[in-house]
Amino acid sequence: MLLCSKQLKVQVLIFVTGLVECLFFAGIVFGWASLVFIFKSQGFFGSFCVNTTNSNSSQIQDCRGQDEQFSLVFTIASFLNNFLTFLNGVIFDRFGTLVARLFGLALHTGGLLMLAFATPAMSMLLYPAFSFVAVGGMMLLLTNMQVANLFGAHRSTIITIYNGAFDSSSGVFLLVKLVFESGIPLRASFLFLATGSIHHMLRTIFLFPKTSIPYPMPDHYECGTSCRRPRNSNRAEQTDFQLPVDEGPPAEDSPVKPEKTFRECVLSKFFFLVLLWLCVIQLRHYLFIGTLNPTLERLAHGDTAVVSQYINAFAFTQMCGLLVGPINGCILDRHKRKPDVAGMSKQEADLNSAVLSFFLTSLLALVFSICASIPTLSLQYFTFVMQVVSNSFLYGGMAAFIAVAFPPCHFGKLYGLLFALSAVFSLLQYACFAAVEEFLDGDPLYVNIALTVLILFSFGHPLNVFLHCRTLASKRAKENTITNTVTVT
Description:
Order of helices and strands: HHEEHHHHHHHHHHHHHHHHHHH
Distance between the termini: 53 Å
Strand content: under 5%
Structural class: mainly alpha
Low-confidence stretches: 232-256
């Protein structure tokens, strides 16, 4: 009893410190809109602004080139954040938690230090700095999601909580903006964030195993400073991601189903449709965040005070991702608090629960995209709310689905490959921004309509999962009917 109580406290400590890590550090790069406001006021990329003459023959300053540079910084950072997640997943699966976190910490801390010493004369330093922060932050999230393995029936909920915290961490740059406006130098804020690496390093050394936290959890597994399996176990030794090994020989009429290979997982319909689902919704979110500042400037007719007000409102709503994420987790885990459905395996029950989550995510993304397409300034408050709710459902649901639909030994690679492929697709955000500036005279209406139509394709994923579960249930019902008929005969 004492040992169980001690382990429970250690598990809670691992969870809480991981929550702090995701909430204040992992996803801060997505608070980009708040930082752009500061960088523009300090003159970063100011050389791209040119003097021009408007229709009234008066001199104005055209800063579209500056906006393009800021958009490109975010595009590259978000691309690498996703594309290199595959490398992160391979490192995590191949070398374990220790090596993966050291790699991520080096990038994250290095990027923050670059930001601390960047100046308008060194504007190009923003490119590697934000890319390092983005890639390192994703590694922190990836290595933290294994903490969900410690909580069994609440596994999906923990995963979505961490993803919600990742989304909420974008609000950190709002705090940076507010303290900057109160007189604290930008460099001091970035140096303070860089000292957070001490917290991350202590967690890496004392709370995580060198390899990874297994799932399902072996009996008497100890976590914390002595993360290890029980030494006096009669079970055969197993790798971190394998299922428990049964001592007894398998029954002749119950052949062991071979685990899917990585290649089979990638070529499956599940993988293709979840990739399509992620790509179209993520592109909509990235384009909205990357172009938020110029969009607000256009709707506010260049009023800097109004733009600042809306940027603050957007950042505040981003911080609510932590509150929204667990709702999706409860939807994904809801069947675990009910009696098992007759004839349905645990995996099928998990997949069946995910259908509602995926459908709601697509529906929320559709409503968000429609609101973002309407050029009404006051409506953007509601757009901000829909964006954070949709975004919180998106990544938590995707991670939980990968953990359920595919073998655990491939989680890191599949999770990373999904992000890598979606990153290539997300490069379209810069093409969309360039098209708006060059061919649509700064009005994104037609691009927004096209993206809204594109989101309709995301409904194919929940439909496929629903039909999959229904087909298996029908097939099993027919088999049971035939078996019962033969038995009676």
